[in-house]
Amino acid sequence: MNAIRRRRTGSRTAGLGTLALLLVLTACTPPAPQPPASSQPPSPSATASPTASPTPSSTGDADETAPPQPGDKVISSTVTHDWSVPGPTTPIHTDHQNPVPIAPPPAAPLPALYAIGAGQHPSDAPPYDQLSFRFSGGFPSYDVEVVPELVADGSGLPIPMPGTGTILEVTFRGAQSHTADGTASTVTSAPPPAIGYHALTSYAPAGDFEGVLSYGIGVGRPMSTVPETKVRINEVEKIEQGQHLYVVAIQLDSSAWK
């Protein structure tokens, strides 16, 4: 349009036919193309903070986001421990027996940790946050207990778990998270350590040695009227994305933050 105005100012005596032609050409010029939304850099508000609570759309476990494949199915689902508070002297304990080795090399001789997932389930009754450990080969035995601090199995040094009200330690026995030759991890996917949910704040590895695999789970600080967080354990055997998995899902009651 600026070009048209200049033409009008400089050539007021131009014929009406020329002016009409210019108007037609101007009207047919397409607007400048806009870059697609995906090519624009995200705004600061769209960049998730490691400690920010997820939006309702980011619920399901982080390693359950792929679309189902033919043959995916749940073989069994069992609540092995219903809602309760594991005290320092009353840990949650489950035994599983697996032949050793469970498979010939190059497979791991013990159930191997395949993936870790985290998710929120705000619409369940009660609502809960979940940290799931997915194993190949079978269910390991495990204990879940409250500990005053998380300690590294090898060095005995404390592992920082900032922003937590309580620390749960889950110890898997007869399990590992490294390949048979010890040169690589068997974990294919896992959320960032600072999860940032209300009940489930973070997690950290504490050891993987001689068939004992341990993790710390950071539990948020509930309101003073509910000083403790209940825990439930669910075991699921499933075929997922072509993998036969044995899932130990640790669920933390998030009712205190509703």
Question: Which features characterize this protein?
Answer:
258 residues; mainly beta; five-stranded antiparallel beta sheet; 2 helices; 12 strands; 8% helix; globular; disordered N terminus
Present the secondary structure layout:
Layout: H1 2-10, H2 16-27, E1 73-84, E2 92-94, E3 112-121, E4 128-136, E5 141-147, E6 150-151, E7 158-159, E8 166-173, E9 200-209, E10 212-219, E11 231-240, E12 243-253
Antiparallel strand pairs: 1-11, 2-5, 3-4, 4-12, 5-8, 6-7, 8-10, 9-10, 11-12
Task: Compose a concise summary of this entry.
It contains 2 helices and 12 strands. The chain is mainly beta.
Structural account:
The protein is built from 2 helices and 12 strands, in the order ααββββββββββββ. The protein is 8% helix and 36% strand. It is mainly beta. The chain is globular, with a radius of gyration of 28 Å. The strands form 3 sheets. A 5-stranded antiparallel beta sheet has the order 1-11-12-4-3, with no helix packed on it.
